[in-house]
Design brief:
Oligomer: single chain
Order of helices and strands: HHEEHHEHEEEHHHEHEHEHE
Number of domains: 2
Radius of gyration: 19 Å
CATH architecture of the largest domain: Alpha-Beta Complex
CATH class of the largest domain: Alpha Beta
Largest sheet: 5 strands, mixed
Strand order of the largest sheet: 1-2-5-3-4
Structural class: alpha+beta
CATH superfamily of the largest domain: PurM-like C-terminal domain
Number of helices: 11
């Protein structure tokens, strides 16, 4: 993972942080996509995420609608890993210098995207911090809350891993993408491909959860395909079919530059993955569209 580290992202240190928190806090919520708390018999779920340095080129290009879509995707895709209905959403935007036209465009679009997923924008915070952020740069984070329906089930021998095709890079590994672009290892066309909006899987996953077709789900985010899959299945129990992953030209290009490191940084064409019983596979395919068998639980 030398290339990613050279771009400014240290995955080993991130893993060390997770290990420290898991040891010291001793609460499984800490390292989950979605955390849960119970109040008066009601389970409430919460998640928080941003869009990393993808926001830099999007903001520079005034692609405010894409910024809004990205932050919704980051959070609702995490929420979709559980049988949880997203109810409310808040945003936090940090700026060097407040541009009311730009920020209002982001928030207005954020409300529209959330409405398409039956989730309500509950408000948020915009903070002007010239001493922290450099000129022309902003950062954004989202916070989603939801109500839980049922708990995930453990994968069993014979269950199937089904991958859902990604829309490309999504919003992970962008520090490395930007570095490669600055070094002319990626063309303008390549970079534009990388800026394609992240696909929001939430509505599709709600149908699967409602029909009780799946046991668990995982959002393929930071750390790439391999590390995220390991959050729901033990690789010692899995046979993976990498050859079934839809081929995307951008990953062929990245593979030629980075080699096997791409598997620890990017989604490599798999935006989301679910576990389902073998007998539910065909029904899942009908609902999901761009789905494929990524693997099987063999022991």
């Amino acid at each position: 993972m030398d290339a990613y580290k050279q771009s400014g992202v240290n995955l080993k240190e991130a893993e060390r942080l997770n290990n420290i928190l898991s040891t010291e806090i001793k609460d499984k919520n800490v390292c989950e996509f979605v955390g849960a708390a119970e109040y008066n018999g009601i389970k409430i779920y919460n998640c928080c995420d941003g869009i990393g340095t993808k926001i830099i080129p999007l903001y520079a290009r005034k692609r405010y609608a894409d910024i809004a879509r990205e932050v919704v995707a980051a959070n609702l895709n995490d929420m979709a890993t559980r049988d949880v209905i997203a109810i409310g959403f808040s945003d936090y935007i940090a700026v060097n210098k407040l541009d009311s036209d730009a920020i209002s465009s982001i928030i207005i679009e954020l409300k529209k995207v959330l409405e398409n997923h039956n989730c309500r924008l509950l408000g948020g915070e915009t903070s002007e911090m010239p001493d922290i952020l450099r000129e022309g740069v902003i950062d954004i984070a989202g916070f989603a809350i939801g109500a839980g329906i049922s708990e995930p089930q453990e994968a069993q021998k014979g269950d199937v891993l089904i991958g859902l095709k990604s829309a490309g890079i999504h919003a992970n590994g962008f520090s490395l993408i930007r570095k490669l672009y600055s070094e002319n290892k990626l063309s303008d066309e390549d970079f534009e491909t990388c800026l394609a909006p992240t696909y929001i899987y939430y509505n599709t996953l709600r149908k699967l959860w409602q029909k009780k077709l799946i046991k668990a789900g995982v959002n393929i985010t930071g750390g790439g395909l391999c590390s995220n899959l390991s959050r729901i299945v033990d690789f010692r129990r899995v046979e993976l079919f990498k050859q079934n992953i839809p081929q995307q030209p951008i990953y062929k290009k990245l593979d030629s530059i980075l080699g096997n490191e791409i598997w620890n940084v990017f989604n490599c064409g798999v935006g989301f993955c679910i576990v389902c019983p073998q007998e539910n596979k065909e029904q899942v395919y009908k609902i999901c569209g761009d789905a494929f068998e990524l693997g099987r639980i063999i022991r």
